[in-house]
């Protein structure tokens, strides 16, 4: 049985997010750091909000140090956004495999995400929202970023497979 945690003042419950998911702009500062290098820094991101998931943030390519990205093999398919391509982050000899993804030809509903990248927080030194270090969404499969202003429970915890 899922027990929604009631949000406190200034908090959002991921159980109030819609399904199908919605896309919204965010002016919050989003940062990605790997091996001490600032890979991305923007105030022009998007966040995808889906029931039971912390937001997945998508950053515009113009605000990403693309010289540290290398296209990775394979891909995946999202029923809402379309076919994704994956990226490695490479800084010197350090390589984080398949830690970012983008949609080169997203569905019309998510057209604004074209070529924007989302990053898994776990393999990075740090990902931040408004200066706050994020916690990766539980489970390792999903790419949401958990911040103090969110309450769950979050998809990805043990027992959540059937949610």
Molecular structure report:
The protein has 163 residues and is mainly beta. The chain has one domain: Beta Complex (Metal Binding Protein, Guanine Nucleotide Exchange Factor, Chain A), CATH 2.170.150. It contains no helices and 15 strands. It has a four-stranded antiparallel β-sheet, with no helix packed on it. Strands 7-8-9-10 form a four-stranded antiparallel β-sheet, with no helix packed on it. Strand 5 and strand 6 form a beta hairpin. The N and C termini lie close together (10 Å).
| Rg over C-alpha atoms, rounded to the nearest angstrom | 15 Å
Largest sheet: 4 strands, antiparallel
Topology-level CATH name:
Metal Binding Protein, Guanine Nucleotide Exchange Factor, Chain A
- Globular, elongated, flat, extended or rod-shaped: what is the shape? globular
Give the total of domains: 1
Report the span from N to C terminus: 10 Å
Helical content, roughly? under 10%
* Mean pLDDT level: 96
Structural class computed from helices and strand pairing: mainly beta
Succession of helices and strands? EEEEEEEEEEEEEEE
Number of strands: 15
Q: Any low-confidence stretches, pLDDT <50, length ≥5?
A: none
CATH architecture verdict: Beta Complex
Strand content: 35-45%
Tell me the name of the CATH homologous superfamily. Domain of unknown function (DUF427)
Strands in their spatial order, largest beta sheet:
4-3-11-12
In CATH, what is the class?
Answer: Mainly Beta
Number of helical elements:
0
């Amino acid at each position: 049985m899922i027990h929604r945690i009631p949000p406190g003042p200034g908090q959002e419950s991921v159980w109030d997010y819609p399904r199908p998911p919605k896309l919204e702009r965010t002016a919050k500062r989003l940062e990605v750091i790997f091996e001490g290098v600032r890979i991305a820094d923007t105030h022009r991101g998007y966040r995808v909000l889906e029931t039971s998931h912390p937001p997945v943030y998508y950053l515009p390519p113009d605000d990403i140090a693309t010289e540290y990205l290398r296209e990775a093999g394979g891909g995946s398919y999202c029923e809402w956004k379309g076919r994704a391509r994956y990226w490695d982050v490479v800084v010197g000899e350090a390589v984080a495999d398949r830690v970012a993804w983008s949609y080169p030809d997203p569905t019309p509903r998510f057209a604004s995400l074209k070529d924007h990248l989302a990053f898994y927080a776990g393999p990075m030194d740090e990902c931040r929202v408004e200066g706050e270090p994020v916690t990766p969404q539980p489970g390792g499969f999903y790419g949401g970023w958990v911040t103090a202003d969110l309450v769950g429970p979050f998809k990805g915890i043990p027992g959540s497979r059937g949610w």
